[in-house]
Structure to design on (88 residues):
């Protein structure tokens, strides 16, 4: 079984680095940063990537950043209200 960018034999599953091809340590780095960084003091509900708070990405062709609809408070409230209706 392959896990992340590392194969079952411990070899890298890719030959070049980019933001989609990360080792397990590189992939975990942002999660650890979010857990311990004083840069996030006073923030809640932010999206993070690559060891930082993600910027809003307007351009759909850009794979980095958080999409505006993902941080839209009105859409979040609508989803919150309508979700229970899906499970009746």
């Amino acid at each position: 079984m392959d896990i992340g960018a590392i194969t079952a034999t411990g070899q890298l599953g890719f030959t070049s680095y980019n933001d989609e091809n990360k080792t397990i340590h590189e992939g975990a780095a942002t999660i650890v940063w979010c857990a311990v960084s004083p840069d996030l003091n006073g923030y809640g509900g932010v999206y993070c990537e690559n060891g930082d708070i993600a910027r809003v990405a307007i351009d759909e062709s850009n794979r980095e950043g958080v999409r505006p609809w993902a941080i839209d408070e009105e859409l979040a409230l609508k989803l919150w209200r309508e979700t229970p209706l899906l499970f009746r």
